[in-house]
Amino acid sequence: MYTDIFQQLGLAMNEAKIYETLLKEGESSVGNISVKSKVHRRNVYDSLHRLIEKGLVFEILQSNENRYQAVDPRKLMEFIQEKEESLSRIMPDLEKLYKGTPHKEEVYVYRGHEGWKNYMRDMIRIGGDAYFIGAKGAWLDYRVRSFFPQFIKETKKKKMKFYHLFDNEVKAKFSHILPFVGKNYKFLPQEYSTPGAIDIFGDHVNILSGLQIGGFVEEFAFTVIVNQQVADAFRIWFKFMWDFCPNVE
Fold first, then answer.
1. How far is Cα 244 from Cα 149, in angstroms, rounded to an integer?
2. CA–CA distance from 32 to each of 21, 26, 29, 150, 204 (Å)?
3. What does the alpha-carbon distance between residue 220 and residue 205 come to, in Å, rounded to a whole number?
4. Exposed, middle or buried: residue 124 (CB in 10 Å: 0-12, 13-18, 19+)?
5. Confidence tier at 224 by pLDDT (50, 70, 90)
């Protein structure tokens, strides 16, 4: 039930199965763990050893056969915090390495909601004002909604401004996105709504399709163009559209 989540937290598949089994079964022998977790007995020993090293399982010494028990699952929170602290310590050096490497003009594809989070992180990293054509409020899609408060916090810290040209339907169907985007927004005329959008920030242009009001479709991907001249051109075209759209009353 929780194996996938445990794997997302950094446990190997067998470790995740065994840890969940121990949470359900309590103190158990290797044989019982193997049967209940459906992990081969010889692989159980290696996984238990790694779980003990991570502080998620402890061994109970007995004269005939040692037994094993999971620690309080709140230990998982400590496990995550320790990883975050380790990463935070080296992040300044990692950012120096990244920024010190020349980044050529390039085109690549982001996929799914994790790709969408990467796009939001790109925006924070690059900073500066951002411009959106055909916006639909997809920042509040249910798959990335938990990341949104952190995104808004970081953009406010950097004093970034957003300029949105929303599809007209947002006004009636998804207006609760509007308080989050600031005062600089307008609505495209009804006849110009599309399932696509274009986002411009820094030297990035994101070309998106498969959007819908308030989110994006299941199999979602979009193209990222990193090219300063192209981004500057799109900003000029955005200004043309902005000037011809009526002000919000």
1. 32
2. 9, 11, 5, 43, 55
3. 17
4. middle
5. very high
What would the pLDDT profile of 145-191 be if each residue is shown by its tens digit?
888 899 999 999 999 999 999 999 999 999 989 988 889 999 999 99
Q: In order of start, what are the domains of the chain with their CATH numbers?
A: 3-76 (1.10.10.10), 102-244 (3.30.870.10)
pLDDT, tens digit, for every residue of 53-71?
888 998 888 778 889 999 8
> Which uninterrupted H or E stretch holds 244?
helix 228-244
Q: Which residues contact 74 (CB under 8 A, 6 or more apart)?
A: none
The reply to whether the predicted model has a pTM over 0.85 is no
Q: Which residues contact 17 (CB under 8 A, 6 or more apart)?
A: 3, 37, 38, 39
C-alpha span between 237 and 207 (Å, rounded): 14
Question: What angle, rounded to 10 degrees, do the helices at 41-53 and 30-37 form?
Answer: 100
Task: Report residue 234 CA to chain centroid gap.
Answer: 26
User: First-to-last CA distance in the chain?
Assistant: 50
Contact 106, 37 (CB under 8 A): no
Give the number of other Cβ atoms within 10 Å of residue 174's Cβ: 19
What SS3 string covers 73-93?
CCHHHHHHHHHHHHHHHHHHH
